[in-house]
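Here is one such tokenized protein:
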Amino acid sequence: MSKATNEAEAGVRRHGGRYIYEELRRQILTLQLKPGAPLDEVSLAEQFGLSRSPVRDALARLISEGLVTILPNRTTLVTPLEIEEFPKYVSALDLIQRAVTRLAALHRTQEDLAILNKADAAYMKAVESGDAEVLTERNKQLHMAIAHAANNPYFVGYYERLLGEGQRLTHLHFDYTVTSPHATRLGNDHSEIIDAIARKDADLAEKLAHEHTMLFQKRFLDYMRQNMTESIAIV
């Protein structure tokens, strides 16, 4: 087999693995693939019409992001949503969200501000559309832009993993958040944070980041109080 043929096939495998990763990630984050659902390499390879190699690559990437878990018996499954661990999740999110937002206020550049404002505009457009999948992606992109503005790469990977978990939790209670008369509605959630970053007010930026986390917690707990039985059923 020629070198050109080998390179072409390698390109197909890389593209196939990326497609499988993106599709599985989308299904996991939107709960189309339920927490705890088994993921079998052979079945997935048949489903996507590819070999097991790109499937294995996609699963490895999802494992690194915490969205897929391998059990001691080698069973691979969608990482369960452990609702009882929610307080620990919020504590971790609050700590790192405060840190990256404070650092963003201290280190942001004009280019960072342009990226943040563009990301916020995309988020607000998604809010108006009511599309949960797009909204959670735009929200994550905005917060990752804050993380990059913080200019400390050690925070980025862990923060991205926490935000991914937050996407699943948001999809769990999204309909309640936007339709319930008792829920806190989505809206211009980030403008004050971006303004504090723009003014390099690190104390205010950190304070607003904390309040932002507490708002997410309130929305989720309000949902849980109204829908406890249904929520626990998918853990």
